[in-house]
Structure formats: structure tokens, C-alpha cells
């Protein structure tokens, strides 16, 4: 594979920017009963500077080719310009290095090289892989902010230095060397994770992210899911002589390079296999799920990728590695009902490939690579055959013929598949938002006749309500795991009539591709015709400005949208054009939303721009309150970034009641907030959060205060909901994620003017469930964000309160 190039070298830290991530460092394996803990990593970023004329003259025209691995950029005959790092040293520990640059800025006539120093002597310059074959799918949200880069290399020498040579006279800009210390302390000692016996192709032992010490704060966004049609084998191109105890550090280094250096949302691989035959969880999202990785550019959404840690161009892979791949692929492909000995033509390919392929087998750019190495590629026939043997009973190529019909007009839909033997099948139907089985059918399939399972679209003659349903077919050829076939599940949609029909099992959901798109969709639901907008920053650091913006939008009859600091996202620009916006209120100074955004607004026909800005977030909130106008009742929240969750749920009631939200510090009422309270004529205040967020002294300093708080953010949200139920319409409720990585969806939800509650991605908090179940006259729940923020079962649990 090309992204993880772990070479035996060594490094020295001199100067530059040192970024420390993580917080807990374990210096020895903990006791057996201790839970695994994240291990911090250090990322030293070293800018490359222009090379002197003497250095350029000394640079040889052709570098030593990489010892093994992927194809490289074309070697320039003459280096007319170049940039070079200073020598970076280390005390002898394992380091992961790589070079990055702005995406698309390194052409084929530029060459990236590194050299290492050992025992005081520098080695030869060696070319580093620079192709774009390993990464997110082009055009995906994950690819938007990525930097170009080399593969990561493991270094264990005395020092390392890198340079970029160019045949043109223009030296490359913004190139940096990343030197990552994944910590010399091992992650918690791996403990056996028992495999599953839930179906054919039993789950192998897979060591978790926690067991290699993943610092989950490095991840961004939420996992995305595709459809597995094949599995791809990669190798990381590092030396093969690593020890078992070094493996967690190697994976942490790769993870840090992918997230911090390349700008990806997570480690690229779905799985990694070490030379000892251990399989490690890579990208988060569920080892049994079709998580979209960043390992085979252009095809990630159609396959999973597993990388052997090491270099296997000429070195024969150990039997333990081949066996681990066979077990992993048998399990993963059995879940997807893919025959490991078959072929498939992936979307975007021009020819069929094996369902178990090497990275080099991917058809077309950007996959220009020798990965997974000649020796490992030669083992693929063995992996295919062994995977098929390990699967046991199976049916392949399942498909469903009808996936949509109108409510009140049921049709028969049929699942067909190719069983490898006689087996008994079971078809079950449930809502995608519930675990309750709504109907069950049974039958027998043979290899000759195939599997044919039909559902007539009713529940015993009764019409299902509109919504999305899961049609699942499982099978068994006898007793035992080897004879049990995992279920195939397809989704069908029953379309609602014009009047909406009876309540379904799933609530309404508003979401988009990212926070900016989500804000556009919410704005269209809240105020689709307005030609005025309130524009707040969607950056995490500017969350307080967005928090106070929703009441301003309601007061001005405007839609609320989010923007990037220096430019309008394309989805926002399209919405502004569609609205023919003439008036814009910008919340925040030019350090938050630049003047370039103002220029974009004017070019779109906006004639009136009112910027509400202060010298800090408290001052900006005060300015927003002044724009809203006189208000004897004011809402108060913490202005601390880490405490935004309490304040965000105030924005819905604040919008409905047209009450401003002012910000305070944990132990102090800022002067700007005191001024605003006086200016708007505040006589009563409602304060969100407990004493750990806003102290009693601060509350006492506010006009006629009422603290509304719970044991955690979920209970605080329900407490605010109970208060709001007494002062506003409470039949319609918004549910969003209370987890830090998805709080951004709540930023724009306040403009809906509804009570706002929190859930976890996969769990409905008891406080939220209890509040919904006891809410009088509850008419609707609307979920903000995609299923990666609040999954369907959690959404369905909320909808139970509406249906009851």
C-alpha cells in the first residue's frame, strides 16, 4: 500500500512547531483489569526552506529508488529549484515521518527525498512515494481539506532530513516535514477479544482502537458507510523486523499522520494485520459495518481495506499474516454475501476484478501503485480459497426487485439469491427505526432453484404506515455456526400520501453533507422565503456567536446560515441565490468572518450588510441582544467553548420567545454582559447549566435569576425543555446529538423555535426518553443531523412517544 511507508530511519527534534495531542500517558502496561487508555502523540511540524545554489548543485539528478514499494514521481533530469528541511534528531525512539503540501501542488516533475544519519554518517537520498492513490475518494467531504503527502515512513536512525527537488524554477511552497512521536510507552497490553459465533465466517479476534491507544480526539466528523462489494489487501511498506510491542506505536503514528498531517477524518485503513497474525481495528465506526475508509482512492465506498504492517515485495509474508487475512476476509465478505472466489466490476472501473484483490488491481487513476507487493499479491489466490472454505454455508448476490411504493397501494417485493446448498430461509420485516419484528415468513431454498423470498407489502393484511422498512433474509443449512448464514437486509420505502398519512416509526430528519448544508436545510424548513439572512461562523471556535444568532434571525424574520471564516460554502451561496437575499446580518468580527465574505455577499446582490461584532464573544452577544431590542426576559449561558451544549439548547426557546441569549464566564459576569442586561431592560434571567458551568456567585449577580440544570448535558436539556414547556408551544421538539463531535448540528437548529433535546449517537439517554414519554400533547420530533450523529434506532425511540 502506499500511504503507510514505514521505513527504518531515525530523527532529531530541533526547532519548529510542536503539537501535543492527547492527555494520558501510560508508561507501563496496566493491570489486567484496567481499561485501555489513549496514548498521546507528539507531532513536530518542520517547514521546508529554499535550498541554496550549492545544495542544488550537489543534489544528484537521480535519487536511489525506494527499497521496495509503490511507483514514484518522474525524476527530473535537472533540479532548478528545491526546498529542504533542517536535520531532525531524536534520542533513539521510533518515529513516523512524512512530507505534506497543499493538495494538487506537487507535480510529476517534483521529487520528494529523505536521508537518514546513523553513527554520524548520512546515507544516500532516497525517493519517497508521492502519488495520490491512497486517500479519500475524490470529491468526498473528507477530501475537501486534505493535504497532499507522501506515505508515512517509520524511522529509527539518528537523524532524518527531507527535500523536494523541482525541474521548474518555481520552488514548491508550504511544504512541511511531520515528525511524529507515537510515544515510547506501549498502548495497554492487548487482551483477547473473542470472535463472534453469529453466522458463517465466524468473527476473528480483532484488537480494538482502545487497545492500540487511539486518542479519539484526533478524529473529526462521523463515520460514513458504503456497500462492500470486495475486500482489498494493502501493505504499509515499513521494515518487517518490528517487535510485537512496537505495533501499537506504529499504528498510532500512522493514525496521527493521516489525521493531523494529511487532514483526513481518521486512519485510512479499516483493518491492519501485523506480522504476528494479529488483526487490529483501523477506522472507527464498527468492525462489522461497511465503514468508508481512505485507502483506495475512488473506490473506498465499495470495499473495505486491510493493510499488512510491513513490506512484502520480495519478502514472503509469514503464514500467520496469510491466515489472518483469510479469517478476516471470510468474516467480512460473509456479512456482505460476497463470494471471495468471484469477480466484480466496481462502479468507476472498466474491467472486472477479483472480490479479493490487491491495491494494484484497482482500475485507473489515482491508483498507480505496486501495493501490496509482489510476494503478498502472490498469496491472494490462497487467501481467496481459504476465505471461501472458512465461510461455510452461504448465499451470494442477494437482490430485491421492488424498493418503493405508495402508501395504500401495497405491492409484492421479492428477494432472490444464489445459495451454495439447500437451506431454510427466514424473511423478517421491521422499521429501520425499531428492533420490533413486524412480520415473519419462512421457506426453503435449493442450489438449483435458488433462494426466492417474497413479502406482499402488508402486515397480515394491515397497511404499514409510511416510512422506511428493512427486509431481512437469513438462512440455515443445519446446526452450528458454519451452517448459519448472516442476514441480507434491503430497504424499502413506503411513500406518504399528500396529507402525510398516519405517523410512521421514524421521525422527520433534517440533515446535510456537513454543518453548512445542514444549516441550509434547517433554514429552508424554518423560513424558506426570507430574503434576509443571519450569517454566523460554522467554525468550532466561533460556536458562541452561532449560539446567540438564532433569536436574532427570528426577531428579524431572517434565515440563519453558517459560513466558513474566509469564504461562503458553495451550498450556502446556492441558497443565497435561490432566496435572492438583499439583507444580511453578520455575527462576529473580521477575525471570525472575513471581509472577503462581505465581498461575496455584495457580488450576490446583497445591498444591506449589518455586521454585529465586539471585541470578544461576550461583547458580540451583547451587540446581538441590542439588535433584538428591549427584552425584560433574557437567557444566559456560559461563553466557554467546552460548555456550549447547555447554551445551545437555549437557542430554540430564545428564538420562539425572541429573547436574547447573553454569555457569562464561569465565575464572572463580563462588563459587556452587564451593559447589555441594562440596555435591553432585563428584569428576569434564566441561566442554563449547573455550578460547574456557571457559579452561584454569577447567578446571584443577574436580575431575578432562575437556574435550570441537570446532572449532565442531557438532563440539563430536558430541564430547559420542562421550563420552556411552561412559556411556549411544546408540541414539536427537536432532537440532536449531544456528543461533542456532532454538536455542530445544533448550531442552526435554534431557528426552528422549538424545544431542543439531546441524544447520543447510539443510545437514548434515560432523561431524554423519560421527558419525551411524559410530554403532554407531543405532536412531532425532528432529528437534526444524519444517522452518523443520531442513529435510526435512537430516532425511532423518540418517535415512540409520538405514536403512543
Question: Architecture of the largest domain in CATH?
Answer: 3-Layer(aba) Sandwich
Structural class: alpha/beta
Q: What number of domains? A: 3
Overall pLDDT metric: 89
Distance between the termini: 53 Å
Helix content: 10-25%
CATH class of the largest domain: Alpha Beta
Rg from alpha-carbon coordinates: 29 Å
- Classified in CATH, the superfamily of the largest domain is Peptidoglycan recognition protein-like
The number of distinct β-strands equals 41
Low-pLDDT residue spans: 1-34, 66-76
Largest sheet: 7 strands, antiparallel
How would you characterize the overall build of this protein?
With 804 residues, this protein is of the alpha/beta class. It folds into three domains: 1-310, Lysozyme-like, CATH 3.40.80; 395-495, Sandwich (Immunoglobulin-like); 510-803, no CATH class. The chain contains 19 helices and 41 strands. A hairpin with a 2-residue loop joins strand 7 (110-118) and strand 8 (121-122). Helix 3 (319-336) packs across helix 5 (380-391), helix 8 (549-555) runs parallel beside helix 11 and helix 8 packs parallel to helix 13 (651-657). The two termini are 53 Å apart. Residues 1-34 and 66-76 have low confidence and may be disordered. It comes from Knoellia koreensis. Residues 189-202 have a biased composition (Low complexity).
